[in-house]
From TrEMBL:
The lineage of its organism: Bacteria, Bacillati, Chloroflexota, Chloroflexia, Chloroflexales. It comes from Kouleothrix aurantiaca. Keywords: 4Fe-4S, Iron, Iron-sulfur, Metal-binding, Oxidoreductase. GO terms for biological process: anaerobic respiration. GO terms for molecular function: 4 iron, 4 sulfur cluster binding; electron transfer activity; molybdenum ion binding; oxidoreductase activity. InterPro entries: Mopterin_OxRdtase_4Fe-4S_dom (IPR006963). Residues 51-107 form the 4Fe-4S Mo/W bis-MGD-type domain. It holds the Pfam family Molybdop_Fe4S4. GO terms for cellular component: cell envelope. It is found in: Cell envelope. This is Dehydrogenase. Its cofactor is [4Fe-4S] cluster. Belongs to the prokaryotic molybdopterin-containing oxidoreductase family. SUPFAM superfamilies: Formate dehydrogenase/DMSO reductase, domains 1-3.
Length: 197
């Protein structure tokens, strides 16, 4: 029993000697390593494990804050604001700071969901199937509703049955191409961007 007590007292003494508060109270400079302990010296930043650092843009709003994405192998291990960005200078709002957690959320949908007309359940479909279906429905709607001329003979070449809403983080060049496709190629008139809404 005495050995156990001595062992406990010895470990408690080591812990007290290593406790940064007591060292600072005994006069060690608080700006030195006095705030460190043996446990804190063993800690390593998780970003040290990253073997790749990529850049991204926060997907939430029209601000377009830059992000640094840290990965180890094929796994993302951290996302933070990019301090080189003139837009956000390394800061992120609460939504942007949560990018990592929603990206790896087990409830995040990662497959195309389709519910047939009149069905009471969703089905998983391949992405290629969904893209082809969207293209077919857009083309069919355009063809069925396309107006070449107004009754007075004015040439309009448009459809009023389809609209396009762009994402807030698209840049000017992407928006330009989308506008050319939607208005010039498909004849759409209702074209808007989330950044303005």
């Amino acid at each position: 029993m005495a050995r156990v007590r001595e062992g406990l007292l010895g470990r408690a003494g080591e812990w007290l000697r290593d406790w940064s508060v007591l060292r600072q109270l005994h006069g060690e400079d608080a700006n030195s390593t006095a705030a460190e302990s043996a446990a804190s010296r063993r800690l390593r930043p998780r970003l040290e494990e990253a073997d790749t650092v990529g850049t991204s843009i926060c997907p939430y709003c029209a601000v377009g804050c830059a992000q640094l994405v840290y990965a180890k192998g094929n796994d993302i291990i951290h996302i933070e604001g990019d301090p080189r960005s003139p837009i956000n200078a390394g800061t992120l709002c609460p939504k942007g700071a949560a990018t990592f957690s929603w990206l790896l959320n087990p409830n995040r949908l990662t497959t195309v969901k389709y519910r047939a007309p009149g069905a009471d359940h969703w089905e998983d479909k391949p992405l290629d199937w969904a893209m082809e279906r969207i293209a077919q429905l857009a083309r069919r709607t355009r063809d069925e509703t396309f107006v070449e001329k107004l009754p007075d003979g004015t040439v309009v070449n448009h459809t009023m049955a389809i609209a396009q809403l762009g994402g807030a983080t698209l840049d000017n060049e992407e928006n330009y191409l989308i506008k050319k496709l939607c208005s010039g190629g498909l004849g759409m008139t209702w074209i808007e961007n989330q950044a303005r809404i």
